[in-house]
Amino acid sequence: MKKLLVALITLSTALAANAQSLKGQLKNHAGQTISLTGFQYYNTNILANSTLDSLGFFSLS
Asked: Sorting pLDDT into bands at 50, 70 and 90, what band is 55?
């Protein structure tokens, strides 16, 4: 049971370490919504959404 618990904690830590974020600025698109889309064959998946602030900054994670 202890080994299973250690394995689960290690796995969850490793998965959290792979989390990434994308930040940037699109000056001419302030207030618009952007999305990060993933593709798998003919299917699309929305991975993240964000609305740009008044200066055009965004963050996708």
From this structure: very high
Residue 36's alpha-carbon distances to 5, 8, 21, 28, 51, in angstroms, are: 34, 29, 11, 19, 12
What are the structural domain ranges in the chain?
A: 22-61
Burial of 58 from C-beta contacts in 10 A (0-12 / 13-18 / 19+): buried
**The residue to which tokens 């055009």 are assigned:** 56
**The model scores a pTM over 0.85:** no
Closest to 50 (Cα-Cα) out of 36, 38, 40, 39? 36
Q: 10 Å Cβ neighbour count for 20?
A: 7
pLDDT for 18-34, tens place per residue? Answer: 668 889 999 899 999 99
